[in-house]
Each structure stands twice: as C-alpha cells, then as structure tokens.
Amino acid sequence: MESVRVKYAEHTRQTLFDTGLRLFAEHEYASLSAEELVRAAGLTRGALYHHFDGKRGLFEAVVDELEHRAAGRIRTAIASSEDPVERTERGVTEFLAVCAEPRYRHVVLLQGPIALGWRRWRELDQKHLGGLVDDTVQAMLATSRIRPHPAKLVAAAFYGALTELALVVAETDEPDQARAQAAELVHDLIAGLTTH
Questions:
Q1: Quick check: 99 and 109 in contact, CB under 8 A?
Q2: What pLDDT does 40 receive?
Q3: Nearest Cα to 20, choosing from 8, 3, 5, 34?
Q4: How is residue 54 annotated by DSSP?
Q5: What is the tally of helices (H) and strands (E) in the chain?
Q6: Architecture of the domain defined by 55-193
C-alpha cells in the first residue's frame, strides 16, 4: 500500500512539473495563475502546494532542472578535450547555444530574474554553472595557459561576462546571430588572456 502511495505522489509531482515546464515556457510568469497550472495538470491547488509550496516553488523547480540540464550539456561538450583552452571554448559555445533555445531563454533568462528575484536566480545559476567556470579557470591557470591573475577574479570576470552575454542573447530578436557574435567575442577575450 505504501509503494502505491509513493508512486502516486511521484506521478503527481511529475505531472505538476511537466505542466509547469510547458506552461512557463509558453506564458509570462506573472500572467499565469496557480489555478491555470493545476487545471492544466488535472490536479488540485492542494497538490501544488503540497509538492511545490505554490506557483513560485514550481517555477523554481523548473528553473533548477533547466540549469541542471544545461550544466550536463556543457560537461558533455567539454569532456572530449584535454586542452583547457579548448575545453573552455567548447563549454562557452555550448552554453551560448543553450541560451539561444526558446525554452531556456524564456524561462531561465527572461522570467527567472523577475519571478525569483535577482539574488535567488543567481544562486541557482551559480549552483549549476559557477563550479564549471571555477574548474575551467583553475585548469587554465594550472597549466599556465593564461596569464597568472588571481583565480577568483578571473572566474568572476568570466562568470559576469557570460551572464551578461546570456541576457543579451535572450533579449534580442535574433538569438542565433547574437549567440554566434557572443561566441566570437568570448573567443577573442580568451585569446587575450592566453600565454600561447
């Protein structure tokens, strides 16, 4: 009996999550009500509050999962190279490709800071992507491939630049063009730091 209850709870949570993922990608966060979410999921407000503590909690879970998936894609993109500079460039290219995708753009980059507030949005972003930036910088510094600046400053510069570029890609009407231009710019920025 307990396993049936657990499976039902897992199914309910997954249904709410899948519905939230779809509807948050299609609508503005502020214009989408909790009632619309549960109606689309075929569930009750009680289920939403039990599993996610409301609309904001569901939205945060969706952002968290999309950030987790983005980080996984970046790890896969960089895994096939041992060269730290090449790994960095591959990671940046994949990150910017993710930023140009409609669902990630709308939910994470455009609605995320509004719905969650800048501080919480940045915490989730750092949770999934901050470590990748830190590891990349440490690897480049360890092999003396970039000039010996303090690691914390280099990581902050990379993270800040990538965050701002991601927002530019998200806000433009031509995300693919902006993504390509941003990737070229980051390539030049990295080249400016390398010791060759």
A1: yes
A2: 97
A3: 34
A4: S
A5: 11, 0
A6: Orthogonal Bundle (1.10)
State the chain's maximal CA–CA distance in angstroms: 65
Type of residue found at 184: E
Whether the CB-CB separation of 40 and 32 falls below 8 Å is answered with: no
Spans of the chain below 50 pLDDT: none
d(CA 177, CA 179): 5
Let me know: does 145 contact 154? Beta carbons within 8 Å: no
* Sign of the torsion angle spanned by Cα atoms 132, 137, 143, 145: positive
Give the C-alpha separation, 194 to 151, whole Å. 14
SS3 158: helix
Residues making up the chain, counted from first to last: 196
Tokens for 60, please give them.
């945060």
Please tell me whether residue 146 adopts helix, strand or coil conformation: strand
Residue with tokens 């600046």: 149
* 103-132 tens-digit pLDDT: 999 999 999 999 999 999 999 999 999 999
